[in-house]
Amino acid sequence: MHRHGPVLSAGFVRLRRGPPRWDAGRLRRRHCVPNVDRYTRGVSSRQSKAGRSWHRRDRMAAHNNEGSKATHYDIRELSAGDPDFAPALRRVFNLDPAVPSDLVLDRFMGQRRRTPCADAPPDFLLGAYCEGCLVSACLTWTSPGAAAMVMIPSRMRHTQERFVLSQLLRTVQERAWKQGIMVLEVLVEADSPDPEASLREADFRYLTRLMYFRRPIVAADREQAVSPGIEWVSYTPEVEPLFTATLDQTYTQSMDCPELTGIRTTAQVLAGHRAVGVFDPALWWIAKREGQPVGLILLNRCVHDPLLEVVYVGVVCSARGTGVADALLSRAVGAASRVNVRDVALAVDGRNTPARRLYGRWGFVQTGERGAWIACAPRVHRD
Fold first, then answer.
1. What pLDDT digit, counting tens, does each position of 194-210 carry?
2. Collapsing DSSP states into helix, strand and coil, what is residue 148?
3. Angle between the N-to-C axes of helices 45-65 and 159-178, in degrees from 0 to 180, rounded to the nearest 10
4. Among 150, 176, 211, residue at a domain's last position
5. Is residue 16 part of a domain?
6. What CATH number is attached to the domain comprising 328?
């Protein structure tokens, strides 16, 4: 079952007409990305022509710079006051230059975190320059729990950009490892093979295919049946050790990204889960049967979308196949109906067939998929 904390998540509005963005526990796969497409509506034809002209100039520069991997690129960190900050974000998210900068930046940066997080290193945006011209960029979002998500362009405009992207990713790794980050993740659109060569060159490895699901909330969900024999324990700081121990037990023989086990501590993973969207302790539960924890479900609100994201759901190995998973999802759907959201969203490892069958039985419909790539700090590198 879904076991990622920033490294992969679920509940979101589309940025590139694709499925979600990341979370922060195990793997990050969040659905809270702003719908930037809406900002392109009503853009004048004059602005559109200017945008097309900008793309033509970019292609011409790329053609003139076309060469070998030996080309020297100057990699710089860009701050919010830098004139290339907005153009770099446009490259990362493949946005039309005609989209007003103030709308994109206000909306995009506002959804990252409602308040600064003292437990995570600062986010950073890197730009690559050739002869003074910006040719590529990547954005790194950090999270509590020693994890970070790297956003890269999903479409390569020219061959040279593939070479520079691998250099950008290596620079990200050098900085991330110095900051104590232990795992980096990149999510690639299912129909976008362009970045794969750059990722392999930069020592990222393919992890799995993440599948994203949503389920609308209906009136009948308010009447979800009480699960007999299940006692529910809500999250408080006093019971955090119990949540950490139960989370760790659910990883045993898990089919959801088992490669991530042991890269970070369970406490770090839990801290990452807390940083996804809007944390509400009243939406985190442990399920107990006969006094023993048998599973847990962690729900967070999405910042800009009326949905609840299943940040994590898991059942301890000894309780699988006994109806605990159904009780956990019933709890999630019932909670969503009471907090006035329209949907429940989640993501799952495409290899986890039992979990996919469970979600299908509960009315979840697949909305997209992405390839997950990871790189680990040298001290935690695993084959």
1. 788 899 999 999 999 99
2. strand
3. 90
4. 211
5. no
6. 3.40.630.30
